[in-house]
Amino acid sequence: EFSQIPPAARVAPKPDELEALWGKCGSLHTGAVASALYDQLGYSSGDFEWQPRLRVLYILEVFHKKGDRGKSIAASVSSQADGLLEHLLEVQQCREKAARVIFILLGKAKAAEAGIDVEQVAAALAKEAKKEEENTAKAKAKAQPKAPDLLDMEPSAAPASTAAKASTAAKAKAKALAKAAAPAVADLM
Predict the structure, then answer these.
(1) pLDDT in tens, 138-184
(2) Residue 144 φ then ψ, to 5°
(3) Is 95 exposed, middle or buried (CB count within 10 Å of its CB: 0-12, 13-18, 19+)?
(4) What pLDDT does residue 20 have?
(5) pTM for the whole structure
(6) How far is residue 46's CA from residue 83's CA, in Å, rounded to a whole number?
């Protein structure tokens, strides 16, 4: 169903759509999910459009990244459908994603045998992995607030809100003392 209904202007699924699909499929029987994906890749349904097949390629790539269960699903599909995957190299709209999926699922040797520029695919995957790693590091750094330096006793080291609160509290205390001391001072005069 997921691969059958691509939006008119966008065939490639969004990351959150793929995550939602994994959330639904990740707990289902591996064989059933693999069979459904294989059926979408095949032509037995009478559907000869490239869009559903491209969406399945995206699904296979993402599932492969989801640990043992996802790899098992993707491997099962690729073992049944390696001829179909190679055929998708001939479909212009699917060529790039099919090359990546073949490289990832079937390996460098099978990709080279299929005529894929393995060096180009490997470089693209490495670049993508580095970018994901950088984004993860940035997200972690952003999520963790900077811990205050407890050994730095300079007032400028205290956060502005803490310094402002301390100043306001000191003024309020001084004002209260002055008010309380006013009658006593008046008596002295």
Answers:
(1) 888 777 777 767 776 776 544 555 555 556 666 666 565 555 544 44
(2) -95, 115
(3) middle
(4) 92
(5) 0.67
(6) 18
For residue 57, which of 16, 87, 24 has the smallest C-alpha distance?
87
Indicate the average pLDDT of the chain. 79
Q: What is the CA radius of gyration of the chain?
A: 31
Question: pLDDT digit string (tens) for 36-48?
Answer: 999 988 887 777 8
What is the C-alpha separation between 142 and 103, in angstroms, rounded?
34
User: How long, in residues, is the chain?
Assistant: 189
Which positions ≥6 away from 32 have C-beta within 8 Å? none
Residue 107's nearest CA partner among 118, 97, 115, 98 is 118
Which residues, other chains included, contact 124 with Cβ-Cβ below 8 Å and sequence gap of 6+? Answer: 100
Instruction: Tell me the C-alpha distance between 74 and 60, whole Å.
Output: 5
Query: 103-114: buried (b, 16+ CB within 10 Å) or exposed (e) per residue?
Result: bbbbeeebbeeb
